[in-house]
Design a protein that fits this description.
7 helices, globular, Nucleotidyltransferase, domain 5
Length: about 150
């Protein structure tokens, strides 16, 4: 098994992967010590406008306030393209099912990946790394995603 770690963070329109959407997605890869090896794609996902109004969730109100919905509306990345972008990045940077995954809400994010990006789910390892074990990577991740958002 590889010692690299795939870090993932995303914003969703709610907490139910059956009815809610992935709004944006970001990824990077570190070594086992948390040193960034590769910065992956960061993108907002453009969904049909009516899908934004189906969710009255707390996440959607935050997404509106933070401008995430505006980024989604202005994005050229469609949901199927998002899956392809992510899968291609992984294939070019890590072996299939070799690296554990991590992120601030990785357990929830993984459920959304399974539903909305099945080829990415199939490529990823199912082992999780807890952030507390990697303070350098955790800090790098926070800074990276705050800068991107």
């Amino acid at each position: 098994m590889s010692t690299d770690i795939v870090w993932i963070d995303m914003d969703n329109s709610g907490s139910d992967p059956e009815t809610d959407l992935i709004l944006n997605f970001a990824c990077f890869i570190t070594d086992k010590d948390g040193n960034i090896k590769s910065v992956g794609p960061y993108f907002a996902i453009n969904h049909p406008e009516e899908k934004f109004y189906k969710s009255g969730s707390f996440q959607m109100s935050v997404a509106r306030e933070l401008g995430v919905l505006d980024r989604c509306r202005n994005s050229s990345v469609k949901p199927e393209q998002a899956e392809d972008l992510m899968l291609n990045y992984l294939k070019n940077n890590v072996p299939r099912k070799a690296c554990p995954i991590a992120g601030p809400f990785i357990h929830i994010d993984r459920v959304f990946i399974k539903k909305h990006m099945p080829s990415v789910d199939d490529y990823l390892n199912h082992d999780f790394v807890h952030l507390i074990n990697f303070p350098n990577a955790s800090l790098a991740m926070i800074l990276f995603f705050n800068e991107k958002c």
